[in-house]
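ok so for the tutorial part 2 we go from a plain amino acid sequence to predicted structure tokens. step 1 is just haveing the sequence, like this:
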Amino acid sequence: MSVFTRSRKASVLGAIALAGASALVLAGCAGGGSGSSETSAPATEERDLTLKIGTILPQTGSLSFLGPPEEAGVGLAAEDINAVAEETGLTMDDVVWGDSGDTDNKAYATTIQKLISEGVTAAIGAASSAVTKLFLDDAVASGIITFSPANTSVDFIDWDDNGLYWRTAPADTLQGEVLGNLVAEDGHKNVAILYQNDSYGTGLSGVFKEVFEGSGGTIVEEQSYNTGDTSFDAQISALLASNPDAILLVTFDEIFTIGPALLQAGYPAEDLYLVDGNLKNFGTDDKWPAGLSMEGAKGTTPAGPAPDTEFQGRLNDWWTGEGNTELTDFSYANESYDAVVLLALASLAANSTEATDVAGKLQEVSGGSGDGEKCTSYKECADIILGGGVADYDGFSGPITFADNGDPTEATIGIFQYGADNNNTRIDI
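step 2 — the prediction. this is what the tokens look like for a chain of 429 residues:
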């Protein structure tokens, strides 16, 4: 496992190291968060908090496959928090569920206004960085926290957010490094890239390009498309004409058109590389054409240190208990669960449900400031806070450890490979 240590505000485009067949961990330097409070919270019996959050996650649109695991993470966390409400003095109010959609159908525009009018402390979402960029300023102006479990765009690193934007997913600087090193280690020298023309696609492909070229590789072709496009014939022709020994696809649901077209043109699946936006289990998805094999293709996505099958079982139980079909994907479920737990812990630590107060304690409860005691569950961390201590939550998505800009400074990128069943399995552990 390769470890990187950098200043929290430094660019990560400089140093490059091989990730090997393992996850890459980005570890930030320790330091105080500018928003954390030094005052001690009162004892348990003096707390009587009701925390209200909402979601702005993709129920529709090109990232709708991420909605179920993310909503399951939110729902299960709220259930776990309420299970010990009498002991902690904090109750999680009914979650205000909402659809983010995407930049094409614009469901987010209605949802964010609903969450603001409902008076939530925090909005969990969006999944798409491009969508979050379209409502974040409204959320900040209204004084509510925006907490994304899946935003990875580098654009948020220096966003003017008044300390109200946080994310449990690492910026694409990390995934781009892991991906660039992975493709180089696999022996590829001449790579073509197809990416969507938005902050996610340009950011991730840009980091990949710099890392891959820094390893001695060559980008032989770059093609892009816009959200809402349905035909990719020109881009695919240009990719194939460049005779690449590997192709990187930075897409969302467009993979269901682009992937089959490349395979039908004779391009080998084992030379295709995917990312978090399209790393799906095609073997269980009716949208994937029968008979087309993705065996050997690889992809990367932010992931916890290792899959926790017991936790995934609990997520699935919660989700099916709400009348839904079983989960087939757990992408960003860990990050969604941890986001809600961190909000509740920050509320306990601040003895407040005001967004600015809660935001002021998020870095502390993640271990990004102060000298906290490690804990791995909401109840364990809550007990530390209620006993007058400082909690440092390490969750299912990893240590997290927020920088003062709301970004996690410790995260893990998982490497996955497709088998004969067209489903992917993690190979870096």
